[in-house]
Specification:
Blueprint (H helix, E strand, L loop, with lengths): L6 H10 L23 E7 L18 H9 L1 E3 L2 E2 L5 H10 L3 H4 L15 H7 L3 E6 L16 E4 L14 E4 L2 E4 L4 H15 L7 E6 L38 H6 L16 H29 L5 E7 L4 E2 L5 E2 L5 H4 E2 L1 E4 L8 E3 L3 E2 L3 H8 L14 H4 L10 E5 L10 E6 L3 E7 L6 E4 L17 H15 L48
Parallel strand pairs: 1-8, 1-9, 2-14, 3-15, 4-5, 4-8
Antiparallel strand pairs: 2-13, 3-12, 5-6, 6-7, 9-13, 10-11, 16-17, 17-18, 18-19
Helix pairs in contact: 6-8
Protein name: Sulfatase
Keywords: Glycoprotein, Hydrolase, Signal
Organism: Ferrimonas pelagia
């Protein structure tokens, strides 16, 4: 007798069977560094903050005095990157110390795997009092407390800058509290109050302050609206005439899309005003950094507390004709990262090595006097900040997996070194890319067809797939489509036509003359 197989049965069986073996440990086992002390940790994370949107980076109009003070008193990690420029995958890499293809959080729609393990669970077992306040965003409709946090305040999905209706609530330790005003202010105040509760305790603490800001739609606090009137300068952006002969087709086409300058978010939004709102929305984040630092001073733990600030991914305001993130270009994958630890790290330094979000958890482990578990991909960069000579990575792997919700962005695999970046795409008839970031920091001259770089391309391609092959990376993770699909184009701006093929892929005569 034949059994009828329905679509629901197939989906259920797929959901029940893991694609690859899990890399996460079944139990939390800590290994202490002999003689090491446990230090307090404060981690401040923002959303969509560009690597150059900081005052000390000579930004043309943004003022970030409190953020600047971390760099002045500590270290600027000038080449900091994320493994996937998308909220949930990036945050999962921060929390697990793993590349995206290992932790398997590949989009913003679903919750994290059941067997996932966070660095906070190790710190908690080592005796830390741990707290998360703000954006979690692994699961659009989920804000329940996660493992590893003694104190929890969060919201569903992206959250709201201001309460969208009377009675809108946040999750506080499994219960509900009303959002009483501007979310950045509320998170800052809650973080400061929690820190004050730790004063005098013998127990070390770890605060994970995770802001909604500066995610779209960018909304500044009312007191900051207009602070940059008449001062806004957009980053250098690429007009169609700037595209070189080897620019990918998908990139030219994406300009007229949800993530493109010609049809941004399927609207005619003024990008200059958009950028101003973005910059003004950061002002309250910067104020909060100052509040946290002042509180640590009042508690008497300032000198001995490790503070790290970073963004979860970058953001484009016109570069390559695009807005938003996801792609492998520098403004998308490069993030701001500064740290201070006055008792351990000399101030006013710059670290140039390529560091990433996968290095955050191992860095916290070292500050906590713990050895990093072997299964993690990252490593602590505290020795780099202390000027020590250590073995460090030659290349950094970037991945982004295609989402049906945003079909204009292909699956991306990219390898970024100190000088060169090689990018290839999966399931796409288009050109790969190679850029000399030293000579071409804006990534306008694709060297992929230049015979002088054949050996470099082969070297980076081999290294990319070697890293990717570890722990199931050659199996493309997929999720069932969820929600809406942003697949429209704008006719009045040439939306009915596709881009031409890159020049080096087009022949004037047959390549072979022996085909029969």
């Amino acid at each position: 007798m034949h059994k009828t197989v329905t679509a629901s049965l197939v989906l259920a069986s797929l959901a029940a069977a893991p694609a690859v073996a899990s890399v996460f440990p079944e139990t939390i086992e800590i290994e202490k560094i002999p003689g090491a002390k446990q230090h307090n940790i404060v981690f401040i994370l923002t959303d969509d903050h560009r690597y150059d949107a900081m005052g000390f980076m000579d930004h043309p109009f943004m003022k970030t005095p409190h953020l600047d003070s971390i760099a002045a008193e500590g270290v600027h990690l000038e080449n900091a990157f994320v493994t996937t420029a998308l909220c949930s995958p990036s945050r999962a890499s921060i929390l697990t110390g793993l590349y995206t293809h290992k932790h398997r959080v590949i989009d913003n729609q679903r919750e994290e795997p059941d067997d996932i393990v966070y660095f906070s669970q190790f710190l908690q077992k080592a005796g830390y009092n741990t707290a998360l306040m703000g954006k979690w965003h692994m699961g659009e409709e989920s804000d329940h407390p996660r493992a590893g946090f003694d104190h929890w305040m969060s919201f569903e999905g992206q959250g709201e800058y201001y309460p969208p209706y009377e009675g809108y609530t946040l999750n506080l330790n499994g219960g509900r509290i009303e959002q009483t005003g501007y979310i950045t202010d509320m998170l800052n105040e809650h973080a400061v109050n929690w820190l004050k509760e730790q004063e005098g305790s013998d127990q070390p603490f770890m605060l994970y302050l995770s802001h909604k800001a500066v995610h779209a739609n960018f909304t500044p606090a009312e007191r900051h609206v207009g602070m940059y009137d008449g001062k806004v300068e957009l980053p250098e952006n690429h007009k169609p005439t700037d595209y070189g002969p080897n620019t990918p087709r998908w990139l030219r086409d994406q300009r007229n899309s949800w993530h493109g300058m010609d049809f941004p978010y399927h609207s005619e939004v003024d990008i200059t005003t958009y950028y101003q709102n973005y910059a003004e929305a950061f002002a309250s984040v910067d104020e909060g950094i100052g509040m946290v630092k002042e509180t640590l001073k009042e508690m008497g733990v300032y000198e001995d507390t490790l503070i790290i600030y970073m963004g979860d991914n970058g953001f484009m305001f016109g570069e390559h004709g695009l807005i938003d993130k996801r792609v492998a270009y520098e403004p998308s994958i490069r993030v701001p990262m500064v740290m201070q630890w006055p008792s351990k790290v000399e101030g006013g330094q710059t670290v140039s090595e390529v560091v990433a979000n996968i290095d955050i958890a191992p860095t916290f482990f070292e500050a906590a006097g713990l050895k990093t578990p072997d299964y993690m991909d990252g490593q602590s960069y505290i020795p780099l900040a202390q000027g020590k000579e250590i073995e460090w990575r030659d290349y950094f792997l970037y991945v982004y997996y295609w989402e049906k919700n945003f079909p204009q962005s292909p699956t991306v695999f990219s390898l970024r070194g100190d000088r060169y970046k090689y990018t290839t795409y999966y399931g796409l008839w288009d050109t790969d890319e190679l850029y000399d970031l030293q000579e071409d920091p804006r990534e306008t001259n694709n060297l992929i067809a230049d015979p002088k770089y054949k050996a470099k391309i082969e070297e980076m391609q081999d290294a990319l797939f070697e890293i990717l092959s570890e722990a199931g990376g050659m199996d493309i993770p997929m999720n069932k489509p969820h929600g809406w699909e942003r697949n429209k184009r704008y006719r009045v701006r040439g939306g009915e036509k596709a881009a031409d093929f890159p020049e080096h892929m087009v022949l004037d005569k047959p390549e072979r003359d022996n085909a029969h």
